[in-house]
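Hey, can you fold this one?
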Amino acid sequence: MASRRVPRYLERLTPVSEAIQIVASRVKPVEEAVEVPVWEAVGLVLAEDVRAPHDFPPRPRAAYDGYAIRSSDTPGRLRVVGEATIGKIDVKYRVEPGTAVYVSTGAYLPEGADTVIPEEAVRREGDYIVVEKEFPAGKNFDPVGAYVRKGQVLLPRGHVVTMLDVAGLLDVAVTRVKVYRPISVGIIATGTELFEPVDPVKAEQRILRGEVAETTAKLIEWAIDRYTPWAVVEERILLPDNVETIAWYLTRQMRHLDLVILTGGTGPSDVDPFYQLAEMLGGEVLFRGLFVKGGRPTSAMLLPGGPLVIALSGHPVSALHGFIRLVYHVLKHMGNVVRGVEPPLPAIAELAGDIRAKRPQPVKVKLYLEDGKLYAEPLPLERQHSSVTVSNCEADGLAIVENRQYQKGERVPVMIYREPETRGGEKREA
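Sure. Predicted structure:
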């Protein structure tokens, strides 16, 4: 349950499923909706079912390149009187006895025709075609309403529109859809030791002096852009560990947003903006720490009259784990999403080594394809630590595992960073 008391330390680690339910019970999904041209709806969430406005096709449509004819004229020698091409509904030719009209795939059939003969099934002789066998009526064209019937549900409410959806909808004359407004997000990277890299030479010098280039907030912004297109990062800013400054941004600059994500400064230490902000601003703490390894300090609170605030770890992979386990599902709830378009865990791989997990955690893995199967090979244990950020360069993805022992050969969900290596020619040892 959410608490008005601000836990100073991570007194209870909340299971992920419970944390998602807590947020869903306290945060309402967006309700505002607007009608937009369908080609502007990619990545947005449908606010109502999309129904076909017409029977489609509205007239019979050729399914092949060929000749529109009267079936009663076959077999026979027919005069070609013109052509009907795709994109024109007003065909000026009519198929009379003994005649044919050339049609391209998708073209509307001329009046009088009741069948289409594929181009390769006839012999052309100047302005005539020779049909050597009988063709029955109703062949090789799509009748009225063959694609969709008026009123048919094409896409359901809560569906995230893709470019393929747009192609399909426009093909049957759906040109407008009603969508929910995007979820507005702000990201605040916290840490006095952090800096925004601009100049490569100066950045190198600052890193060697002990400063840290900010990457975690950028990573979360990338994840939101990549996996939750119905949410828009309106602002991302880097702030020092100064609670008054962070509070000003939360209550002034970002108050109008739906969600603000804090990265860094979330652990049970003296530098703990989440704890201090909750006390200072009277935030309702929804949970304080997740039962996970890598992202354990992940917390959430509601500000009075303000946005939902989720605090993530300052370590990139730990923060990404928090996104995968929690933020992704919260944004689905807030956006009324029934099914995401491209979840961050799109693949299943077979483990090429053992994993022992005491809590749900991400495991950096190398990925490779062999004999048509995807394998995930865990990096050595010493390369898994959050502090060894450079090992991210060695990994091809993350295996997302639960709190148990995994044996080599088991299948696990993986988030893929890059195309797996292809290995072949050698048999794997049992």
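Residues 426-430 have pLDDT under 50 and may be disordered. Let me know if you want another pass with a different chain boundary.
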